[in-house]
Amino acid sequence: MKKFMMFSLLMGSLFASSIVANVEGMVCDFCARGLEKVFSKQDEVASIKVSLEKSIVEIYFKEGKALDDKTITKLILGNGISVNSIDRNDSK
């Protein structure tokens, strides 16, 4: 848990914006790796962190880039996982 928190703080300070998606139905490591794979293919995404334990997906965007909530939801749903909420952290 401490490693996860440190990673989150570090990543949040390196990129202009990020989101945290609270998800439901992510039950195994295969689910998590599927999300990492699909989001890493997006040009806007710098990195992604998936936590099975907390049922969250953190996506960090490249400077000046982002994905809208509709696209994020579509990509997550495409992996058979439901989205409960998306919280944005837009740093300037």
UniProtKB/TrEMBL annotation:
Signal sequence extent: 1-21
InterPro entries: HMA_dom, HMA_dom_sf
Domain of life assignment: Bacteria
Coiled-coil residue windows: none
Keywords: Signal
GO molecular function, one term: metal ion binding
HMA domain sequence ranges: 17-84
Name listed for the protein in its UniProt record: HMA domain-containing protein
Biological source species: uncultured Campylobacterales bacterium
Lineage: Bacteria, Pseudomonadati, Campylobacterota, Epsilonproteobacteria, Campylobacterales
